[in-house]
Description:
Layout: H1 7-19, E1 24-29, E2 32-39, E3 42-45, E4 70-73, E5 78-81, E6 97-98, E7 103-109, E8 112-117, E9 122-127, E10 134-135, E11 140-145
Antiparallel strand pairs: 1-2, 2-3, 4-11, 5-7, 5-10, 6-9, 7-8, 9-11
Amino acid sequence: xxxxxxxxxxxxxxxxxxxxxxxxxxxxxxxxxxxxxxxxxxxxxxxxxxxxxxxxxxxxxxxxxxxxxxxxxxxxxxxxxxxxxxxxxxxxxxxxxxxxxxxxxxxxxxxxxxxxxxxxxxxxxxxxxxxxxxxxxxxxxxxxxx
Length: 146
């Protein structure tokens, strides 16, 4: 989808953000990704992730992955934990170098703690879910660049 979404579609998405009191909403349409972020000091406004807003704009856009970034996706539905226990240091942070097989996070599903390991060696460029967030099957969790 190379065109910006229609205004009606954006209005519907903004209504969802407001109705469910969401902090943010990420929508993927074909090859495009749009992130709507609500701020308490300003009304929620939509902008495509490919466009950088002015510093004072009420929308924050997510950086786009580079062409060589490897994406680690959730192999199951579960609650994302960035550390082995509450108060512990995260398994990885943005900027950390990781090896194949290194633990990146834990996904809790049906009271089972599943360690998610890296299939790629490289540098962590982005950690997408917030600690404690529910992630869906196939949802992007990490971007790793060789």
